[in-house]
């Protein structure tokens, strides 16, 4: 009887500790002026943010967030000064419209320049940039101009493998593959239904339908992607689709396959929900930024989902990152409050914020040890 009560109290206490510790979003940085939609961390905790140009012409594109919230443009100089109103030259060597940033296993920073502002294609500006974080200098620029990108083409996000970069292209919907050594670029699956906007999906964020400036359901073609830790499978999805699509990297990089053959090898993956951003930890768990519920889910490689947090402050959780010490960093982009996603009305409330939440299993291990200790104690004194 007493043992039972103690046990139930112990389990109750455990769940309480667990839920309380796990449920808390902590604000780590704010951007008073410029919208951000991505965060990336190095292994030793340097933090970077990516700033698109969806909320206005002026922005700084890429910055390091220093302690005490100092936002320092990176790499600096002319890279960060492009402005579509008054400073539009040299687009090959400047950030025109950064849509994604990523740190790789060697702590290089990768930057995706969409090559498009709003619906305006800026010729020769779509590119992937590698920044060496030892010296904060641009090490290599991978232009995609050789694709002769069609009107509407927009690079979106990137994942880096040993030999390739894989990018989603979200203007028309396709996948772009860059050979990191040769710089050779290919574009595939641009006619495949998996890369297209899943009409007639209408997504609601903060209770409002996500509508473009003309009041039509916002179209979001191929957007989120993840590469499994073994580099064998690429997952991708349009933001508003309800499932992942999967393709083997061996097929994706096999140039002898025709588009039809490649398309036939695309497999429907796990069920998800409309997501503002995703990230994967090194065990292959994916963290999904659930737009409609303002929540974050962990999806195991087997597809099962568990809730990490639900919080009204996650107003379009965007491209997140997992830190070496086991926190998930979540940038809040408020995209759904921008005119282009909100039926022409601007409802953004500055500043923009980045939160983090503990996600690793250290706490659970500690709680389990506490439970084991209580059980041993009970066995000794009670039983
Ligand atoms: C362009 O305009 C921005 C303000 O939007 C200003 O900060 C910047 O200095 C201007 N650049 C040039 C080259 O005039
Ligand atoms: C681009 O957007 C502007 C308004 O932002 C609109 O007037 C124009 O028709 C659009 N052009 C295309 C090609 O969609
Ligand atoms: C590429 O695809 C062709 C056709 O299916 C196949 O014969 C070949 O083995 C593949 N190459 C590689 C490296 O997988």
From TrEMBL:
Signal peptide: 1-21
Domain of life: Eukaryota
Keyword Secreted in record: yes
The entry's keywords: Secreted, Signal
Localization, UniProt: Secreted
GO cellular component, one term: extracellular region
Record-linked PANTHER family: PROTEIN YELLOW-LIKE PROTEIN, PROTEIN YELLOW-RELATED
The protein's name: Major royal jelly protein
Species of provenance: Didymodactylos carnosus
